[in-house]
Write a structure and sequence with these properties.
The chain is α/β, with parallel strands linked by helices. The protein contains six helices and eleven strands. The chain has one domain: Spore Coat Polysaccharide Biosynthesis Protein SpsA, Chain A (Alpha-Beta Complex), CATH 3.90.550.10.
Length: 210
């Protein structure tokens, strides 16, 4: 990769420190220099752990409450609005602007193969219209088609999901419902499908340990 494919990686957690430690340390092995890391630790339950790693985290939040997963996605959409405004201020002072090409949502009970981010980005370079790319293959969701090693599906769970930033914004702006805790990933997948896009899965890159 040429370093231009910048990821904003959102990692969010609530308690379950043993799993969070494994998942986060594993993620750090694959975060690239051009990426930025956004961490939400609900209730500050794992704050001591994240503060020990604060030099590797670009944006760190400790909400006092435990949010539904779907509300976390809405937070991410509003965070992009904030980045837009920050970039205007930085531009005024001739500072370096940063804005993601990809949104990469990673739950805190995952393990990824080393270098998985670059390989998941390649899923978008496919003959199919891919709106969501993932390295997690959920057997419960049927495969529609196969393009080389990439499985084409309609739905994927929220274990790890990557979007082109503009597609993510359009998708979230087009939802007329507040995403809940348990069906948020299905709702997002269905909205993606209604916009004419599929899910591209590169099996074996992400495993779910939670």
């Amino acid at each position: 990769m040429d370093g231009k494919d910048k990821n904003l990686i959102m990692f969010f957690s609530w308690r379950r420190l043993e799993l969070v430690e494994k998942s986060f340390v594993n993620l750090l092995e694959s975060v690239r220099p051009q990426d930025k890391l956004l961490v939400l630790d609900y209730e500050g339950a794992n704050s001591s752990f994240f503060l020990r790693h604060k030099d590797k985290i670009d944006y760190l939040f400790f909400p006092k409450f435990n949010s539904d997963k779907g509300l976390t996605w809405h937070f991410l959409r509003q965070f992009l609005n904030w980045l837009d405004k920050i970039n205007i201020i930085f531009d005024r002072h001739d500072n370096i602007k940063w804005y993601p090409d990809f949104i990469n949502i990673v739950e805190s009970d995952t393990l990824g193969a080393t270098g998985w981010i670059d390989r998941i980005i390649e899923v978008f370079n496919n003959d199919e219209k891919i709106g969501i790319a993932t390295g997690y293959d959920a057997n419960e969701w049927e495969t529609k088609n196969k393009q080389r090693e990439i499985l084409i599906k309609e739905t994927t769970p929220g274990v790890q999901m990557m979007f082109k930033t503009e597609h993510f914004k359009q998708l979230m702006d087009g939802l007329n419902t507040t995403l809940g805790c348990r069906r948020h990933d299905w709702i997002v997948s269905q909205k993606n499908l209604s916009m004419g896009f599929n899910v591209g899965v590169l099996p074996g890159e992400i495993i779910h340990i939670g």
